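Lecture 7 notes: from sequence to structure.
We start with the chain below.
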Amino acid sequence: MADIANLVAELSKLTVLEAADLAKALEEAWGVSAAAAVAVAAPAGGGEAAAPVEEKTEFDVILTGDGGKKIQVIKEVRAITNLGLTEAKALVEAAPKAIKEGVNKAEAEDIKAKIEAAGGTVEIK
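Predicted structure tokens for the same chain:
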């Protein structure tokens, strides 16, 4: 238990930039992601210096329009989100509106391709 306390004391001396470098090194060494911890730590330091260190891993897929093919886009939104007809129609009519949030890049690109194939327009943020 004393070793953990000493480790915490040593880590508390790190600057925000050093903590971000440590998090990145641990992510690479252990094959895990500490994106939430780094995102919380970065604003505390008040620095924009830590922001470029993190690569974005979660994306929001935003429907920006139906491209005049509302029915096809509603069908595709239903298939992607498992929403009922009424909910999917409301989502499409309320564009710009998020279809899915917090998805990985591959899934976001897949959703974008499906919606665009149906005639809609999509933005990934």
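Points to note: The beta strands are 59-65, 97-103, 121-124. DSSP finds six helices and three strands in the chain.
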